[in-house]
Write a structure and sequence with these properties.
Blueprint (H helix, E strand, L loop, with lengths): L2 H5 L4 E11 L3 E11 L2 H12 L4 E6 L3 H9 L9 H48 L1
Antiparallel strand pairs: 1-2, 1-3
């Protein structure tokens, strides 16, 4: 690993809840900080160290600078009401349906173009053979 990958924020911080089992002493749940590029990578690393069955959760640590930057750019940290969530959900569904419609139209136009090309190739082949 290169130093610029670490200093540039390439690795994210994760907080894992793991169960530590010590023979003769019992079990204890502890929080463990780990730096990794993905949450799944952090989970796998903790599973390797503590055992798969002992990893209870992995959450990304959000730094204060990220929160402050979000506030500066006008992000609203207030929770949405039920009505606002419903409107947001409907807008998201609408956007997904519009995107899907565009995708289907594009697929249909590609199919039409392929059919036109096949017809042109057939007519060209018959013209050349005659």
């Amino acid at each position: 690993m290169k130093i610029n990958e670490i200093t540039s924020g390439y690795l994210k911080s994760y907080l894992g809840m793991v169960r530590c089992v010590v023979p003769g002493m019992g079990t204890l749940t502890v929080r463990v900080a780990i730096a990794c590029d993905t949450p799944m990578g952090a989970r796998y690393a903790l599973a390797k160290c503590y055992g798969r069955e002992n990893v209870m959760s992995v959450q990304q640590v959000v730094s204060e600078t990220v929160l402050n930057d979000a506030k500066t750019f006008g992000a609203d940290n207030k929770p949405l009401t039920a009505q606002q969530l419903q409107v947001k959900s409907l807008k998201d569904q609408s956007k997904q349906l519009k995107d899907r419609a565009k995708q289907v139209k594009a697929q249909q136009s590609v199919q039409k173009a392929q059919a036109k090309l096949q017809r042109a190739n057939k007519t060209l082949a018959t013209d050349v053979s005659n």
